[in-house]
Each structure stands twice: as structure tokens, then as C-alpha cells.
Amino acid sequence: MNQSKVLVAGPSGPRAKPSRTLWELQLLRRTWRFFTSVRLALILILTITAAILAGTLLMQVPPSVMANPASYDLWLEQARAKYGIWTGPLEALQFFNVFHTLWFRVLIGLLTVNIIVCSANRWKGIWSMAFPARIRMGDAFFEHARLSARLDADMPPSVAVERAKRAFRRARYRVKTETSDDAVAFVVDKNRFSRFGTFFSHLSLVMILAGAIIGSVWGVSDSGFVVSEGAIRDLGMGTNISVGLEHFADEYYLEGPPKDFRSEVVIYDNGVEVKRGTVRVNTPIGYGGFRFHQAFFGNTAVMDVRDENGTVLFEDGVPLAWQTQEGRPVGSFRLPERNLVVYVVGPLSGLNDPAIPAGEMRAELYRQDTGTLLTMGNLTQGTPKELEDLTLTFQRERRFTGLKVVKDPGLNIIWAACGFMILGLVMLFYLPHRRLWAICKSRPDGTSEFQMATSSQADLSAAQEFKQLTNRVRLAFGIAAVDSDDTEGEDDDV
Q1: Is residue 139 situated within a structural domain?
Q2: Which pTM value belongs to this model?
Q3: Helices and strands (H and E) in the chain: how many
């Protein structure tokens, strides 16, 4: 035989030990109450808002930079120049990568659960309001309701009931009646399903959060994808897509403001050209779910690096997409077989730079594993120079384009959520639920007493509609309509 509790001896005699099932039910109830808390929702919304604000105001490291240690070090130096001593704490708290952090996704998940549980908790109440089980209300309800009216009709109750039904239905109200020995009770309503609009609004919030999570987990937003003229760069991110830049051009008005920035790009898939086109600031091109937007541009230093045997170790353009603390443009590339990171630094723009004259680039060689500076030297264009058993040549300058690469698989979910949000708001605010109760009683002289009332909260539109509906019933009973805004406690005789 199953027992729900076990008696355990103690100092004051036997006491009941809760069963495991009872403990689990209590834990479930506490968890449910925790997630139905409005305070929890408010705390989560404020915390997520603060995180989004931080992610918007603070610099966010692009995924392509995050994946490249050398580029990330350069990016961090640029951030340190802006945020100073706060750079370390901000990096430790992952505020430079807010939307891809675990803690941000946990906050989104908790808010999603909170919304779902609150919606489920409200279901029973909204269902009972949309489908009321009670038709006849007591006399006290009609006496104390905020909006009420009492009409005396000079006709039998059977006629009054039919005329009242016709008046309600012409006003697009649904009518249900309940007949007893002494009276006929009414409950009339319209737009009863509009109360479910709150669930569409809640569903839209859940879908927006789900779309945000899907976008942050499986989506891509890289604002630092750089391609040099004449070069082809792999997109990565688990794809076989690569992007080549044939030409970049920038045009300006005579007064100085920019007129047009455009990149002539070619997209390859598995090495086969699949698309080409012109990318402008407001004219992206897309392929494979990715969209490529024009973001920035700059100069590229074409470098040639050979070992002591003349073997080419590197021959490509190095985009000078970052800046040193002094404001010089800088880029980097790696020589993993030599455990080296090579930084290429250009001269200050528009100034006479004594350290790096125009037409030269400075090469700095660092050990990759320790970050130790080994050597540095200026490279004159077209003139090879030996550094650390390597021959480096700055061949020429070219342009590069910076593209913002975006892929958001949650975007369609968010668009659908916007539709549900609009539907919910329309149901709640433009099709409000209206409901009132009425009762028709017979008088000793064969005439009828008709009372109607609603339990609506203070709502000007509800009061106005109640007045209009009361006037419809008046006219149906042959009573003149009234213009007074006060319909409470009226007593009309015919």
C-alpha cells in the first residue's frame, strides 16, 4: 500500500516526513510562481535593455576579427585608446561581444519562459471572460454596477424580450438568454475573441526573442570583412563561399561631400563564379542567405615575403584597416611556419610623418606565441629589405573595401512576429470586448421592467457605447432616446 508520509521519531514525538512526490510538487509550484512574477519580467526587461544599450554604444568586435588573434590584438589596442583603463574589465565581462555571449542568451531565454508562463497563467481568466458561464446576475449587480439603466416598458415581457433581442443583434451583439419563472435574463457581448489578442501580443514577443536567439546563435553580422583589389578572400563561417574585389571607386562632389562609394565584387562558391555585381552603401547584394553591404574602405599594402632560399612565403595585399594609438593605419598577416606575426604600418594621413615618410611602409616582426617584438624597419616601395632572415618587399599600394556581411535566419520569424503584434494590438484596442447583462421582469399590471448593466472599468468609449445601446433598447420599447451622458440609475415610464 502506498503511503504519502512516513512517521519519524523526534524529541517531541513522531512527526511527518514529506514524501518525495509532495516535495517535487512544492518545487514545481514555487518555480511556476517565480516565473509568473511581474517583478521578474521587469528586472529581465531592464537588464536586457541595459545589455542592448551597452552593445549599441560600445564597440563590438567583428566575428572575422575575433577569429584572428593578430587582428583581435590590433582591434583591442584601438579599443584601449578609446576606453583606457576600462578596456580590461569590459573585455572580461564580454561587453565587446554582447550579442554572442552566453549570459545574454540566458537572459533572453529566461524572459521567453517568463512570457510563456505568464500567458499560460492568464489563459483560464481570459477564457472565462470570453465564454461566461453565468447568464443571470443578482439584483445587487444591477444596483451597484458602474454603468446601468432601468427602463419601464408598456408591453408584455414576451414582447419586450423579443424587441430587446432585436435591438442588441442590430448593434452586432451576440445574445444568450435564460428563462425562469419570474424573469428572462440576458448576457450580450461582441468581439469576445478580442481578449485573446493579448496572447497574440505575447506570442509576438516570444517569436521576437526566439528570432533574436536564432539570429545570435546561427546568424552572422560581421562589419569588418575586408577584401583588397585583385584579391579573393574566403568568407569562412563553415561555407565554401569566397569574395573577390575587382575594383573599388569613391567619388566626391566639388564641394567635398562624398558622392558615391562602390565595390565591383565577384562571389564564388567552391571556386566557381556564381554572382557578380556592384555593392553600394544602400545597395547590397546577396547570395546563400548572406548579404554584403558597403561599410568602409582604405589602402592596402601589397607585400612580398621570401625566405633565405627565395621561396615565397607571402604575396598578397595587407589591408591597413586599423589604426595605432598615434593614428597610423596598420594591418597584419601571419607566417605560421616561422611563428611570426608581421604588422605593416603606414604613414600618418595628410601629414609629414618623420617616422614613416610618404612612399614607405614600416614592417614590425613579432613572435606569434609570445608577442615579443623581434625587429622592425622601413620598407621603400619596390626595394627589398632583409629582416630576420626574411626578404620583405613593399610592392605598391592598392585599395581595399570593407564589407558588412549579414546573415540572419531569425529575420523571417521576427517579421512574422511583427504581424502577430499588429494583429494583437488591433484586436485589443480597435475591437474591444463589450459585454453587459440584462433582465426583464413582469410587473403585476402586465407591463415589463427591463434592467441592463455592465461591469466595465472606467472607459469613456465603453460608457458611450453603453449609452448608444441603451438608446437602441429605448427606441425598441417606444421610449424616446436621451442625450444625457449619465445613464446610471435611470427610470423611464411609458
Answers
A1: yes
A2: 0.59
A3: 11, 23
Burial of 43 (0-12, 13-18, 19+ CB in 10 A): middle
Burial of residue 429 (number of CB atoms within 10 Å: 0-12, 13-18, 19+): exposed
90 and 173 in a single domain? The answer is no
- Residue 377 has a CB neighbour count (10 Å cut-off) of 15
Q: In this structure, are 91 and 115 located in the same domain?
A: yes
pLDDT on residue 363: 95
Grid coordinates of 2: 502506498
Do 380 and 415 lie in one domain? The reply is: no
Instruction: Report the C-alpha gap between 275 and 100 in whole angstroms.
Output: 30
pLDDT for res 71: 77
Q: Which residue has the cell 556592384?
A: 278
Amino acid at 275: K
User: Is residue 269 included in any domain, yes or no?
Assistant: yes
The distance of Cα 203 from the centroid of its chain, to the nearest Å, equals 13
**Residue-by-residue DSSP string for 194-261:** GGGHHHHHHHHHHHHHHHHHHHHHH-EEEEEEEEEBT-EEE--TT--EEEEEEEEEEEE-TTSSEEEE
* Whole-number pLDDT of residue 37: 85
pLDDT at 491: 44
Per-residue CA distances from 320 to 74, 208, 225, 370, 439 (Å): 11, 38, 13, 23, 83
**Interatomic CA distance for residues 467 and 475, integer angstroms:** 12
3-state secondary structure of 23: helix
* Tens-place pLDDT, residues 388-402: 899 999 999 999 999
Compute the radius of gyration of the chain from its Cα atoms.
37
236 and 385 co-located in one domain: yes
Same domain, 176 and 247: no
Q: Please check whether residue 5 lies inside any domain of the structure.
A: no
C-alpha cell at 465: 457605447
- Is there a domain that residue 23 lies in? no
d(CA 303, CA 308): 16
- Are residue 351 and residue 251 in the same domain, yes or no? yes
Domain that holds residue 115: 30-123
Last residue within a domain, chosen from 78, 95, 123: 123
- The total number of structural domains in the chain stands at 4
> Considering only 242-256, 412-426, 455-469, which range has the smallest mean pLDDT?
455-469
Q: Which residues pair with residue 373 across a beta bridge? A: 366
For the chain, what is the mean pLDDT? Answer: 86
Q: For 349-369, what is each residue's pLDDT tens digit?
A: 877 888 999 889 999 999 988
Closest C-alpha to 225, from 287, 292, 172: 292
Assess contact for 115 and 41: CB atoms under 8 A. yes
